[in-house]
Amino acid sequence: MKRVAPKKSTKSDTARAGRWKTCSSNKPCGVHADRPTTASLSGNQLRLWLSSFAYLLVERLRTLGCAGTELARARVSTLRTRLLKVTSQIKVSVRWVSIQISSTYQWRELFALCQWRLNEIFARG
Q1: For the residues 83-109, what does the mean pLDDT come to?
Q2: CA distances from 79 to 14, 17, 44, 46 (A)
Q3: Taking the model in full, what pTM does it have?
């Protein structure tokens, strides 16, 4: 049996592998159903249920809150990054909760519109 020395990896090989890993980890809808994160089946099932429930909530946000806006047909991952991953300051009092969004937040008006629409829907009951 002939022994062969391993090939030295180059920067291009490493970069190619990194690009493949990045592309393969981008999920189209943000629900990672194909990778188990816990050792038990029940833990993975709970994670999948919670992930699916979160997807449904964001889908309702898109349907009800973003109707007629530029995000009406956006992917769930886009909604998540533009509307839910927001840096803000939250002040809690005995009677109210105040959310102060930065004045440099790019989608501030759209966030306020979605919030107003959802408040109207829930106020009606």
Answers
A1: 88
A2: 32, 29, 25, 23
A3: 0.58
